[in-house]
Amino acid sequence: GVIRGFIVEKGTPGYSTKDIHGKFSLRASVTSELTFQDCRIPLKNLLPNVEGLKGPLGCLNQARYGIAWGGIGCAMACYHEALNYAKTRIQFDKPIASFQMVQEKLAWMIREITKAQLLALQIGRLKDAGRVQPHHISLGKMNNIQVAREIARLAREILGASGITDEYQCGRHMCNIESVYTYEGTHDIHTLVIGETITGIPAYK
Predict the structure, then answer these.
(1) Are 72 and 57 in contact (CB under 8 A)?
(2) Which residue from 60, 70, 72, 83 lies 20 to 30 Å from 152 (Cα-Cα)?
(3) SS3 label, residue 35
(4) For 10-67, how does the pLDDT look when each residue is reduced to its tens digit (9 = 90+)?
(5) In the chain, what percentage of residues exceed pLDDT 70?
(6) What is the pLDDT of residue 59?
(7) Which residue of the set 33, 51, 104, 184 is catalytic?
(8) CATH superfamily of 1-52
(9) Mean predicted confidence (pLDDT) in 166-176
(10) Where does CATH 2.40.110.10 sit in the chain?
């Protein structure tokens, strides 16, 4: 058979949702489990002009590209918060920004943010030129979210105990980026997409 997409309207018999509560991550969004039990969808709800997985995967590629930029925003917020904190937090009569290991962390952050920005920019240029491929999107999502994840953790380290309070952002970003690391294709799946592109051999079949 052929995979097709449908619009399932709220109130359709057999279709139900269950909100997921008690989340540590993405707490401001509503996350639900969708259940389809003997659910019949009318033909008028069929999405036209697309067959197979091209439709949903095309949507995912658009979302993943946006996520690559979103990861940069998360990383920048954590970097700036850590930088400002380090310049104003005084220990041993001087700001902790004067310590070598703190500067090493901050320098690593801005280096990785700059690389992530350039990667996302190049993918955008490929999109504009009509030459972007799924593995380009996978590379952007995989790299930039991994970078954001590590920068959020480093920012929390620089802030010390303050980093786990709601007075600062990095703890929230650190929790949220864990969800982003998983959704829209896990880090491992995007690694395999890139691996297949490089070798010509699919490792997930």
Answers:
(1) no
(2) 60
(3) strand
(4) 999 999 999 999 999 989 999 999 999 999 999 999 988 888 777 767 777 888 999 9
(5) 100
(6) 78
(7) 184
(8) Butyryl-CoA Dehydrogenase, subunit A, domain 2 (2.40.110.10)
(9) 96
(10) 1-52
Using CB atoms within 10 A of its CB, is residue 149 exposed (0-12), middle (13-18) or buried (19+)?
buried
CA gap 40, 108 in Å, rounded: 54
Other beta carbons within 10 angstroms of residue 129's beta carbon come to 8
CATH architecture of 54-199: Up-down Bundle (1.20)
Residue extent(s) of CATH 1.20.140.10 domains in the chain = 54-199
Q: Is the dihedral of CA 180, 183, 188, 194 positive or negative?
A: negative
Q: Exposed (0-12), middle (13-18) or buried (19+): which is 152, by Cβ within 10 Å?
A: buried
* Residue 126 in tokens: 């490929």
- Average pLDDT in the chain: 94
Place of tokens 């297949």: 196
Element (H, E) at 141: helix 134-159
Q: Is 184 a catalytic residue?
A: yes
